[in-house]
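Our working data are protein records whose layout never changes between entries. Instead of coordinates, the fold is spelled out as a row of discrete tokens. Here is such a record, shown just as it appears in the course material:
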Amino acid sequence: MTIDHGNAARGAIGGIAAFEPQRPFLSRRSFLAGSAAGLGALGLGGCVTSDGALMAEAATIYGPMPDEKFPIPAVDYRKVNPKYYRRTVAYASKEAAGTIVVDPSQYYVYRIEGDGTATRYGANVGRDGFLWSGDAYVGRKSEWATWTPPKEMIKRQPEAAKYARGMPGGLDNPLGARTLHLYQNGAYTLYTIYASSDPESIGSGITSGCVGLLSQDMIHLYARTPVKTKVVVLPA
């Protein structure tokens, strides 16, 4: 398998694009899935004592990131169900510390901390017909990656043809500020964990198998995830 390391998602697995938002092509929910480190987890699960404290913490964690290459605005966290805010939770796992576990049925991504807890992030996941499960690993990482729509997507959505040679990194790029590219047996799966700027997408299935976190959450996870990190995607 030939991989273009300058692009984050060029082809398809079994004819399915690894990242393809739903129609309409340029809608906020279905296409602008792009676009830093949060200041900490939101309390150990159940320890936040009031909605006011939760909202105050969310305002800090999901605030603007003006020092990024493309300054990232604050998230309108009021559009996100509070259960999807980043927090530390009790999580029993046999996986090694640092392992990423994706639970698409609950729209969560966990980073195992190795002490009976995990950092939990709210996520968007693959829509019906595009879900997958299994073990992978982070084969490479990229910041503000170029996105190239696969041929299958261009065939279905001709509007994407203008990006056939790649869409440069930026706030409007579907891969956003940070991307973890998932590999199996030395080959790029074309699936990614990417940064989303769409708060309303969190807790829903909208992609062709990729997993999106809010930009601030993705930057937090990215900074703590080295290449070769194991990724476990649970059955939906």
About this structure: The mean pLDDT is 83. The longest strand covers residues 134-143.
